[in-house]
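User: tokens in, sequence out, please.
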């Protein structure tokens, strides 16, 4: 079992920055891939970025490349999503998720590939 808890959301003006955190705990989570997804009202849950806990390989959606950076702190069991250059279209509830069983260079990018989810944190970007 893996427990995830997000924090760091809020209201920010366009062009601003936020850093989301996802605190992870539980059995053997260090072998997981950690991902960030987002869901805006009336839209499907969308992949944002993911990172292999072991090795640190990352993958980001085209819509956030160059603006968002995913990272991890092994000592703190925490995954971060640094979001710069925020746009109104980035407004959504952001979810942290964990997936197991993926090794090597492959990074899962589909919500159904992830087993554990946090409760989500709201990010609102005003124009």
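Assistant: Sequence out:
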């Amino acid at each position: 079992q893996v427990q995830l808890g997000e924090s760091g959301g809020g209201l920010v003006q366009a062009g601003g920055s936020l850093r989301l955190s996802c605190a992870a705990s539980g059995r053997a989570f260090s072998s997981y891939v950690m991902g960030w997804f987002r869901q805006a009202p009336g839209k499907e849950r969308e992949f944002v970025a993911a990172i292999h806990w072991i090795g640190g390989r990352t993958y980001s959606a085209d819509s956030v490349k160059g603006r968002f950076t995913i990272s991890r702190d092994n000592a703190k069991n925490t995954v971060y999503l640094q979001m710069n250059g925020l746009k109104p279209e980035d407004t959504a509830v952001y979810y942290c998720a964990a997936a197991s069983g993926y090794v090597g260079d492959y990074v899962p990018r589909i919500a159904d590939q992830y087993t554990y989810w946090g409760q989500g944190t709201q990010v609102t970007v005003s124009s």
